[in-house]
């Protein structure tokens, strides 16, 4: 009898309250519903983002067909007049179109900067469509364009990799066969970065294995620093180096000496 009563009390003590069971069921349903909602929301956001990218690329394809296909081909495969754009990436399109170099106004040794022909939205659409054709450099992250890189490192890297064409002060310089390295003063940080990773015209490509994104940021910081600060030596004569300085001395300094000599000779007579 005692043993049976003990077992009965034990079973009763081990039984779960109906309220506790309902609470556990409710918690389980809430947890399951929350997880499902989160997954559904994430999938919906991804689908919406993918749809937006697709829509942007479709708009870019239409713009390309109307403005670029006559040279580059309907599928950007290239023609006798222009190279293929498959695999050049969004950065190349953003640079070339965003600086007005493309579409070209006329054939020449190289595409020159001119007023931009498209809006920012249209440029983004063109870049999105070309990027969809094959993998290539993407538009740089804003964190590398802030101009807060190491100035000393940027100056050294610029002198080693860029100054032989663009001049140590970024003023630009002449190349062969009518080509030239343009001045980097007034060029946006984004376009400088894109030029480094795409290599427009005669410029070599500096991928992340050659110059890291942090070092590219340092180079941009150096260029923006010298752009914002005047020459400590006084009149910079366009920062064109010994040619302009020698010409200045030859015309004005020696010319002044000759003029004074002629004046003294005439006065003595």
Automatic annotation (TrEMBL):
Membrane topology label: Multi-pass membrane protein
Subcellular location: Cell membrane
Secretion signal, residue range per the UniProt entry: 1-37
Principal cellular location given in the protein's record: membrane
Keywords carried by this UniProt record: Cell membrane, Electron transport, Heme, Iron, Membrane, Metal-binding, Repeat, Respiratory chain, Signal, Translocase, Transmembrane, Transmembrane helix, Transport
EC number in record: 7.1.1.8
Alphabetized Pfam families for the sequence: Cytochrom_C, Cytochrome_CBB3
Broadest EC class assigned to this enzyme: translocase
SUPFAM superfamilies named among the record's database cross-references: Cytochrome c
Reaction(s) catalysed (UniProt annotation): a quinol + 2 Fe(III)-[cytochrome c](out) = a quinone + 2 Fe(II)-[cytochrome c](out) + 2 H(+)(out)
Entry superkingdom: Bacteria
Residues spanning the membrane: 247-266
Segments forming domain Cytochrome c: 55-134, 149-227
InterPro entries documented for this protein: bc1_cytC-su, Cyt_c-like_dom, Cyt_c-like_dom_sf, Cytochrome_c_Oxidase_Subunit
PROSITE patterns given in the database record: CYTC
Record note on quaternary structure: The cytochrome bc1 complex is composed of a cytochrome b (QcrB), the Rieske iron-sulfur protein (QcrA) and a diheme cytochrome c (QcrC) subunit.
PANTHER family: CBB3-TYPE CYTOCHROME C OXIDASE SUBUNIT FIXP (PTHR33751), CYTOCHROME BC1 COMPLEX CYTOCHROME C SUBUNIT (PTHR33751:SF13)
Protein name per UniProt: Cytochrome bc1 complex cytochrome c subunit
Organism of origin: Protaetiibacter mangrovi
């Amino acid at each position: 009898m005692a043993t049976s009563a003990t077992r009965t009390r034990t079973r009763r003590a081990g039984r779960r309250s109906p309220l506790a069971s309902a609470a556990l069921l409710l918690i389980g349903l809430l947890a399951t519903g929350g997880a499902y909602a989160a997954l559904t929301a994430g999938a919906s956001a991804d689908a919406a983002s993918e749809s937006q990218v697709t829509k942007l690329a479709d708009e870019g394809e239409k713009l390309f067909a109307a403005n670029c296909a006559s040279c580059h081909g309907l599928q950007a495969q290239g023609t006798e007049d222009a190279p293929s754009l498959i695999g050049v990436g969004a950065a190349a399109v953003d640079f070339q179109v965003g600086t007005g170099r493309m579409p070209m106004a006329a054939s020449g040794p190289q595409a020159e900067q001119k007023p931009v022909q498209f809006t920012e939205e249209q440029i983004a659409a063109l870049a999105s469509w070309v990027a969809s054709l094959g993998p290539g450099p993407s538009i740089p992250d804003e964190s590398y364009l802030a101009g807060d890189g190491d100035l000393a490192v940027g100056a050294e890297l610029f002198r080693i990799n860029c100054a032989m064409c663009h001049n140590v002060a970024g003023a630009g310089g002449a190349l062969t066969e009518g080509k030239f390295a343009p001045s980097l003063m007034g060029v946006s940080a984004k376009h400088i970065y894109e030029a480094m990773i795409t290599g427009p015209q005669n410029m070599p490509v500096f991928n992340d294995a050659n110059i890291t994104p942090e070092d590219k940021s340092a180079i941009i910081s150096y260029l923006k620093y010298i752009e914002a600060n005047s020459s400590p030596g006084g009149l910079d004569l366009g920062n064109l180096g010994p040619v302009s300085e020698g010409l200045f001395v030859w015309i004005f300094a020696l010319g002044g000496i000759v003029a004074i000599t002629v004046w003294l000779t005439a006065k003595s007579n």
